[in-house]
Each structure stands twice: as structure tokens, then as C-alpha cells.
Amino acid sequence: MRLGVDFGGTKIEAALLDSQGEIRARQRVANPGNYAAAVQAVADLAKRIEQEAGVESKTIGVGMPGSLSPLTGLVRNSNSTWLNGKPFLEDLKRATAKPVKCENDANCFALSEAVDGAAAGARVVFGAILGTGCGGGVVVDGKTIEGASGIGGEWGHTPLPWARSDEIQVRDWCGRHGCLEQWISGTGFKRTFGMDGHQADAAAKTGDPVARVAIDLWSDRVARALSVIIDVIDPDVIVVGGGMSNIDALYPAVQAKLLAHVFSDFIAVRVVKNKHGDSSGVRGAAWLFTPEEAQ
Prior knowledge:
The chain has 295 residues and is of the alpha/beta class.
């Protein structure tokens, strides 16, 4: 059994997976938004879910916003800013009295979809999260690629490629200007077009010209952003997650627009919707430990 925890900004979810990837028990609680209380909430949730399933897990994998600095071991780059600068991993180990691995939530999403999701069987997978924020994760041969500085896949805080004159660079929460998160996330869509993505999708399906233009322009921005990823790592599959992944028009639109931006004479990558939806975070967290480590 593997225990995975999806540590989100508003909720904390835990799930116990068996060796076949089937969820045997699952619970969620509100994230208290206070560091000490949140650490204890993870420990309490782990105990309750083990009691519900009647088994004890040997390990706990945690998907979290931001990442751990290899230099200090402290959290950095989290949009839940109260986590930044805290020894989250060490405090979770003490609170749960178990081996714990923490990984960026986008990496966990990508791992889940690469292991037994929409990209199962693919060697190189990029997971693109388009939700309230924007993030990315890279998986090669079933393993997340964190990189030498531990920031592998931090796609959401790179600039919008080939920005046009009317794409005015706005300040992101991270302090920089022009980050992808301000353009292709759900929040960025609403800022740009004055309506949320789901409203635009529904209106576009009825033929509304304003909504159709909005979806098309947003898809072009996503295609530009993904083309840089393709030029650098040339993944077999790009899996899209987050709330904006439910806009079905995104996939054919992006697939058609990539060739105009990628430095190639053809496009082999498949851009697909996730399989596991909201479960991908917690599933990917559970997969952070190898079968041998989880025994």
C-alpha cells in the first residue's frame, strides 16, 4: 500500500493505493492555512485513512505547491506563501513518524499520468497544469526530473514566447513580469478576457463570436508556450491538467497551431487531456516511492 497526499492551497487530500493503482481509501480536509496546523492536519489525515482501510502504509508521498531547495531543504516558490522558508519535509517526517517524500504538485500530476494515465507507456512526458495557476512537470522513464537546482518543469514562471505588442507584460505574484501564469492559467484567462474559461467554452459552443475568438487566442498562447517545451525536450506526450483542461476545443486548436512555432518540419508529440482528473495529484504523490521503498 502507498499513501499519497495532495497538499493544496485550500484542501488536503489523502489516498491509499494498492499495488495495482486502485484507490482503497480516500479522505480530504480543508487546509487550515497555518503552517503548524497544516503539518498536523497531514499527520492526522494519514492516521485516519489508514484506520479506514485497516492497513498501515510504510511511506507517505506528498505533492505540494512550490519545491524544496536542495541548498537549504526549505520550501521555496510556493504560491501558498506561508509555506516558504519552512522545513516542511522534516516537520512532516517528525509528525508522521514515517519516511516522507515531497515533490512539486505538477511533477506529481505528470508522474501519475505517465505511470497509468493518459501518457501510460510513453518514455518522455510533460505535464502542463492550467488551473488557478500554471505549472509543469517532466517525467522520463517513469521518474520525475527535478534537475540540479530542484526546479525542473517550472514552466509557469517563464515568459510568454513571441509576445505581441498588445500582450502587455503584467506583474506576476512571484514579482516578475510576463510569466505564463498571467496568460494561460484560468486566472490569466479571466484577467485577459473578462470571463472565465468555462463561460467562454459554453458560449463558444453556441457560436458566440467573442468567446470563440477568446478561446482561439488563448489556445495560440498555450501553443506558443508548449512549443518551447517541445523544442527543448521533445516529449512523446503532453498531458494537460487543471480546470482549463476541460475545455475540449483546446486540444485540436493547440495541435494545429504547434507547427507554426516548433523548430521542426512535423509534430510527433500528442497533446492530450488527463485521465485521472483531480485524482492525479494524490496518485502521483503515492507513486513517488518505488515498490521496493514502499514495502
